[in-house]
Write the structure tokens for this entry.
Amino acid sequence: MARRGEEGGRAVLEGIAARLRDEGIRVRTLLDERPPADAILHVATREEVDLIVMSTHGRGGFSVS
């Protein structure tokens, strides 16, 4: 049985994904319990991604670094 934190995380991700899908954006969610840097590198390598976009809580607006 999934832990409560994992269930909550999945619910949040699916809620966001549903809003994006409503806008016509293809979305796939992933939840990984590894340390963040390890999870990002693992998925980026496995999925052969070209771009990784990361955000904060969204309280500070948008900026490009």
